[in-house]
Every structure is written in C-alpha cells, then in structure tokens.
Amino acid sequence: MDGRLLRWVPWLLGLIAALLLVLILILVGGDSGDGSAGSGATTVPASDSTLVPPTTTPVETTASASTTMPAATTAPPATTVPATTTTTAALYLLPDGFGNLVAGADHNALAAAGEITAPSWDFTTANDGYQCGWAQGAGPNTGVDVQLFEWVAVVFSVDSSIRTPEGLGVGSTAAEVIAALGTPTEDLAGAYVETERNLYYESGAHGYRFEFADSTGPVTRVYAGFWDMIHLSEGCV
Predict the structure, then answer these.
(1) How would you label 91-119 residue by residue, b for 16+ Cβ within 10 Å and e otherwise?
(2) What are phi and psi of 217, to 5 degrees?
(3) Bigger pLDDT: 188 or 69?
(4) Parallel, antiparallel, or unpaired for β 219-226 and 206-212?
(5) Could you give the 3-state DSSP secondary structure of residue 67?
(6) Taking the alpha carbons of 108, 221, 94, 234 in that order, is the dihedral positive or negative?
C-alpha cells in the first residue's frame, strides 16, 4: 500500500467515530424528548392553549324561590243585612192640618183622591150665601173631620190616635198641654157653657185650639187650621 494512503487511515477512522458519536447523541436526545426511553422520568408537556379544559361539575345551588306575600288584609266581620221594611211616616196633627188635609187645600181634589168623603153643604141664611160644609177624613185620614169654606179651613181630631208632634190629643189634660206648649195665646171659656175651656196657640196664620169639657180636662177635641177659623163657635159662624 502506498505510504501516503496509510497516513489518511487514522484520520478517516477518527472522522467515522466522531460521526457515529454524533448520531448516537442525536438518537438518545430524540428518545428522551418523547419520554419513551431513558431513565423513565415523565416530562409534563407545557400547557397548550388548544387543550380542552377539564369538565367541571358546577356546584348546584338551590335559590329560594322569591315569594311575594300579599299584603295582609283584615276581612270585615260578616254583616247581616236586616230585611227591608217599609214604614209609613207618622202623621201628626200640625197647626195647618193633618197630612194632605191642610188649610187652603182644594176639597174637590181631596174628595176625588178618596182622602175625604163627599162634603155636605149648609146654605142657611146665617152663612150669608157662601158655602160652608163638613166632611170626614177617609183612608189614611180616618179619625179627623174637616170644616170647609169652599176649601179646607179647619181639621179637628175626633179620635185619640190623632196626636200633635208633642203627643197631645183627645184625652190629654190641660196641665199636659201647657207643659208641652207653654202659656197659651188665649185661654177662653166656652161660647155657650161657661165651664168649658178652650186653649189657643197661634202659629203664624194657623194655630191649635184645645177644647175641654171643664177647666182641667181632658181634651175632647183638637182643632188645627186658619187662626180666625178655629175661633168659630159653630164652624160656619
């Protein structure tokens, strides 16, 4: 062999050895990178943003349902409605009359309405030619009589159920009348019988006349109507 060629043999062997060493290191380094060789240590890969995060089971929380309580109300106590009753307004003998039988009312209209009986007339010469008459109350006016001068002039009670607002009527005493109405406007004896007594109470153009059989009572009749008419001793005169 040529001596020059021999001089290159060691160098070539060294080069080959070096290349083999590098190759082995490369192979060893690759195996260590994927964790399949080496000492068995496991290398945890760096976190990858593309990895799916682990499934987390949320803690179930039970929220109390929001309950709106209605405002407390107090129910009123049960009320028993009484049955409807119809009551007739009490009628009183007032200074101008009784119910619709008032001084100056049209007697014909009252007769047509059945509130008085058909009037009877007296045409004696003592009446100076004018009509003077009497009628009896009818329907709700039962218990009173009426003295007429072509219209209602005086109403007078003949029944103890007919009363003034003060409760005075047939059967009351003179003391009771005075106690209820005060001092009379006039206190006169009877026109024909001296023992009779009449107490008068004026109320404007109208008034009361309480007639007594004696000085103390009881009342035998109560008149109401025009002030001058309740003074007529015989009704027409």
Answers:
(1) bbbbbbbbbbbbbebebeebeeeebbbeb
(2) 130, -170
(3) 188
(4) antiparallel
(5) coil
(6) positive
Q: What is the pTM (predicted TM-score) of this model?
A: 0.59
Distance between first and last Cα of the chain = 199
Please write the tens of the pLDDT for every residue from 172-207. 999 999 999 999 999 999 888 888 999 999 999 999
Is the separation of the CB atoms in 207 and 185 below 8 Å? yes
C-beta of residue 61 within 8 angstroms of C-beta of residue 70: no
Amino acid 129: pLDDT: 57
| SS3 (DSSP) at 80 | coil
Query: Mapping DSSP to helix (H, G, I), strand (E, B) and coil, where does residue 135 land?
Result: strand
For residues 71 and 192, give the distance between their C-alpha atoms in angstroms, rounded to a whole number.
84
What is the mean pLDDT of the segment spanning 102-112? 90
Q: What residue ranges in 142-212 does DSSP mark as E strands?
A: 144-148, 152-157, 186-189, 197-203, 206-212
pLDDT of residue 130: 60
How many other CB atoms are there within 10 angstroms of residue 155's CB atom? 28
- Spatial distance between the Cα atoms of 153 and 140, rounded to a whole number of angstroms: 19
CB 225 within 8 A of CB 96: yes
